[in-house]
Specification:
The chain contains 14 helices and 12 strands. It is α/β, with parallel strands linked by helices. Helix 6 links the parallel strand 5 and strand 6. It has a 6-stranded parallel sheet with strand order 2-1-3-4-5-6, with helices on both faces. Helix 1 packs across helix 14 and helix 3 runs parallel beside helix 5. The protein folds into 2 domains: 191 residues, Rossmann fold; 158 residues, Glycogen Phosphorylase B (Rossmann fold, 3-Layer(aba) Sandwich). The chain is elongated. Helices cover 45% and strands 14% of the residues.
């Protein structure tokens, strides 16, 4: 049914990092489908000419009627002039082959396309390269018959920025893989809070400080999981709080085992960065599928999901001391929110997400499984 052609497939050790999780989950999903194939000519996408010919041959001769590409994990997608040249040839020929041989193109867009340049100020591209990248994106989006996006808010913004019809989009949020992994920490009667993610994000220091100030009648601990940050070791040494544990960057299974040992999940993003209003982070689905009530800063898409589904608390500021205290001390509230997570968790597994997205896509394309 589907032939998936990514630029490369991330190593398993990278599988707990944002977009890498999504690519590996797409590979697993496509391989689970009847006739599904994943084609990667080489990890770094080769010598340009041979790579282009191999991909075009695969598009032409695959028996599958749907070709799936993933952006930004896409062959030839780079703003240097050589990639720009080959990318334009690639786009034109793929579309011609698809039309000639009655194939449809689905494009899965991760939550870091160039729209982030307008919405996430921390990593701006030089104006000339940004303009070139937007041109490339526009051409890419135009050849797709259906575009999978993380959230409906993202679809709306992309529709406006690139002049695309809103009915071209299908929402496919970041999810979590199904697993039979159990908790890795013993139940000691303590309420464990966990943050799994990157330590460069705004509000991390404030979040840790909130826990350090937390005084409760119930014993509580904070577990921090993620890539090492230089400031973190010094900061934790200054706090000298034995309740806070930094476990470093773990593989996805070890990370999930720790999360399942905890009772509250933490998220912190900058409400002033518009980008987070359109995002659905992988760890949001990780917390939901592991049954953890969530405490988050007030960013649009995440805050709406938490409040509407009653699966956590939204903190109006970076100071999370008050909501932390509520969930540590109020067993009834915490257990009810965990039960609410259980009610919706099926919608946040990757296989469910992609199956729903595929069904909606086939409907739009007038096709059947």
């Amino acid at each position: 049914m589907i032939t998936f052609i990514p630029h490369h497939v991330p190593f398993k050790s990278q599988a707990n990092q944002g977009s890498f999780v999504r690519v590996r989950s797409l590979v697993a999903f496509v391989n689970s489908l009847p006739g599904g194939t994943v084609f990667v000519p080489s990890r770094r996408c080769f010598d340009y000419v041979s790579g282009l010919l191999l991909i075009l041959a695969k598009v032409r001769f695959t028996k599958n009627k749907i070709i799936l590409f993933s952006y930004p994990n896409l062959p030839f997608f780079d703003t240097n002039i050589i990639n720009y040249f080959f990318f334009n040839i690639f786009i034109k020929l793929v579309k011609r082959l698809a039309l000639r041989y009655h194939k449809k193109i689905i494009l899965d867009v991760d939550d870091v396309p160039s729209i982030s340049e307008a919405y996430l100020s921390k990593w701006p591209l030089p104006p000339k390269l940004l303009e070139r990248r937007k041109i490339m994106e526009k051409r890419l989006f135009d050849i797709a018959d259906v575009i999978w996006v993380i959230t409906k808010n993202q679809a709306k913004i992309m529709s406006e920025l690139y002049g695309l019809a809103e009915n071209k989009f299908v929402a496919a949020p970041n999810g979590n893989a199904r697993s039979k992994i159990g908790p890795s920490l013993p139940d000691e009667g303590k309420i464990r809070l966990v943050f799994a993610g990157a330590f460069f994000l705004t509000g991390i220091k404030e979040m840790i400080g909130s826990f350090n100030r937390l005084k409760t009648t119930r014993p509580a601990e904070l577990y921090l999981l993620g890539p090492y940050a230089k400031w973190l070791k010094k900061f934790l040494k200054e706090l000298n709080d034995p309740r806070i544990h930094y476990l470093g960057s773990l593989d996805s299974q070890s990370c999930e085992a720790i999360v399942k040992s905890c009772q509250v999940g933490l998220l912190t993003y900058d409400p002033n960065e518009k980008y987070w209003a359109i995002a659905h982070p992988v760890k949001l689905s990780l917390y939901i599928t592991c049954g953890l009530p969530i405490i988050s800063t007030n960013v649009k898409n995440i805050a709406e999901l938490i409040t509407q589904s009653r699966i956590g608390l939204v903190s109006p500021t970076y100071d999370m001391t008050a909501p932390m205290r509520q969930l540590v001390e109020n067993d009834e509230m915490r257990q009810q929110m965990a039960a609410n997570c259980a009610k919706i968790k099926e919608d946040y597994y990757f296989d469910t997400i992609y199956n729903k997205a595929l069904e909606l896509s086939l409907e739009k394309l007038g096709m059947r499984r």
